[in-house]
Design goal:
It is a single chain. Helix content is about 30%, strand content about 15%. With about 425 residues, the protein is α+β, with helices and mostly antiparallel strands. The chain has 3 domains: about 5-180, DNA-binding pseudobarrel domain (At1g16640 B3 domain, Beta Barrel), CATH 2.40.330; about 190-290, 3-Layer(aba) Sandwich (Restriction Endonuclease); about 300-410, Restriction Endonuclease. The strands form 2 sheets. A 7-stranded mixed beta sheet has the order 4-3-2-6-5-1-7. Strands 8-9-10-11-12 form a 5-stranded mixed beta sheet. Strand 11 (about 355-360), helix 8 (about 365-375) and strand 12 (about 375-380) form a beta-alpha-beta unit. The longest helix has about 35 residues, at about 255-290. The termini are far apart.
Length: about 425
């Protein structure tokens, strides 16, 4: 399949006999963290449905062979899909119970290249008439523009999350229950929502405020608190989205243009939510950690004309006071993913040499980390995600809790 660009590839692979699995590559997928588990993780529940012969617990580490083409990088090979299941054989306490793609050819593969950690990857499985997997075409996005093109079709894909997509969703009903729609404690039924939310979709701040009520979690450290609330907030968002949009879908559309316009609204809302919500959660945690807005930090301040970092510490007023020492100033940028976006922060807050960046990306390559370090960008990563980074990088990362602690040692947070 010689395809000139991603748009052509998406058009070719959006046929009814394709099912897509879409994710961002983590450090545990690529070779970025030196893990022996290298190879893209795909939930076994999904793979069992399209490769039933893989679902054999009585066999240790069952596998299937599959022809795979990484069309974005002109790579073709036969791979193994393995269910590592020694948890049920010789290591019941600490054994593995996960499925991965292997035999990808090492670091030369775009799926294992450490520099592609954080990249959006689409696995387009070819299905036969019985819904069984026959082959797989892969596209590893090579730029932010390519990622935007994919997310405009399938919706926002966050680090650590994944989704299943097909142009013929109704034709694969057994696969789509795997979508991330769960009725855990943060999922709201329509009668549990403020009535105005069903008329006007709530703002990000309103959903975050609801999250704080359902997940106060102030007994947890800032890192666990952030991750727990993000998961809860996503459930709330999806439950509201279903309550608002499902009636429109069931009602139907009079024209294609009406359908496209509604779909674009949904997709744009998903994209705008992701980064903004992380920013709002960080702000709430700063306040809970006894940091006063306008005195200990400012949110969305102006550092220089036309420049607005996400957070300045201790304040915009201190930043613009030339008598205030540069060494006691800090800035924090917030980006859900940082693979192609970290350079955007380099020109923010000219007085501050070291730029801190809070991200949920699960790992970066050694090369990219060296680039960041050279530009004096320091990553702030929630503690539960540290293991996604290579052992050589981990000592140079700050958890959110440690970042806040370092702010307080400046002696300016009274």
């Amino acid at each position: 399949m010689a395809l000139a660009d991603l748009a052509d590839w998406m058009d070719e692979c959006a046929a009814p006999h394709f099912i897509w699995y879409v994710k961002r590559l983590s450090g545990n997928d690529t070779l970025a963290n030196g893990s022996h588990q290298a190879g893209p993780y795909i939930p076994k529940e999904f793979l069992f449905r399209i490769f039933p012969s893989l679902d054999r617990k009585e066999i240790k580490n069952p596998e299937v062979r599959l022809n795979l083409k990484i069309d974005s990088h002109s790579d073709k090979r036969q791979i193994r899909i393995v269910w590592y299941n020694n948890k049920f054989h010789d290591n019941p306490k600490g054994g593995r119970n996960e499925s991965r793609l292997t035999n990808l050819g090492g670091i030369s593969s775009a799926l294992l290249d450490p520099d592609n950690t954080g990249a959006l990857a689409i696995f387009a499985f070819v299905l036969d008439k019985q819904g069984r997997g026959q082959a797989c075409h892969v596209w590893v996005c090579r730029s932010e523009l390519e990622e935007d093109l994919v997310e405009n079709l399938v919706g926002s894909v966050e680090p650590g999350k994944w989704l299943v997509w097909s142009v013929d969703e109704a034709g694969h009903p057994d696969l789509f229950p795997l979508k991330e729609k769960s009725r855990l404690s943060c999922w709201l039924d329509p009668d549990e929502m403020p009535p105005e939310w069903l008329i006007r979709f709530p703002t990000g701040a309103e959903i975050v405020a609801k999250t704080l009520k359902l997940r106060p979690a102030q007994e947890m450290n800032p890192d666990k608190r952030l991750m727990k609330r993000r998961a809860c907030e996503f459930e709330i968002f999806r439950s509201v989205e279903e309550a608002v949009e499902l009636p429109w879908i069931e009602k139907g559309f009079g024209t294609i243009d009406e359908f496209v316009a509604r779909a674009q609204t949904v997709l744009q809302r998903r994209k705008s939510r992701s980064g903004r919500s992380l920013e709002l959660h960080a702000k709430e945690i700063f306040i809970e950690e006894e940091m006063r807005e306008g005195h200990d930090f400012d949110h969305q301040p102006e550092s220089e004309l036309g420049k607005k970092p996400d957070f300045l510490f201790p304040s915009e007023l201190a930043y613009k006071n030339r008598d205030f020492p540069d060494t006691n100033l800090r800035m924090l940028a917030v980006k859900t993913t940082c693979k192609d976006r970290w350079r955007q922060i380099l020109n923010e807050a000219d007085r501050i040499q070291t730029k801190h960046l809070l991200t949920l990306q699960e790992g970066v390559s050694e090369g990219q980390f060296q680039e960041m370090s050279k530009e004096k960008v320091k990553l702030v990563v929630p503690k539960p995600l540290l293991s996604s980074y290579s052992k050589s990088i981990q000592p140079h990362l700050l958890t959110l809790e440690k970042f806040i602690g370092n702010l307080k040692t400046l002696g300016k947070l009274k």
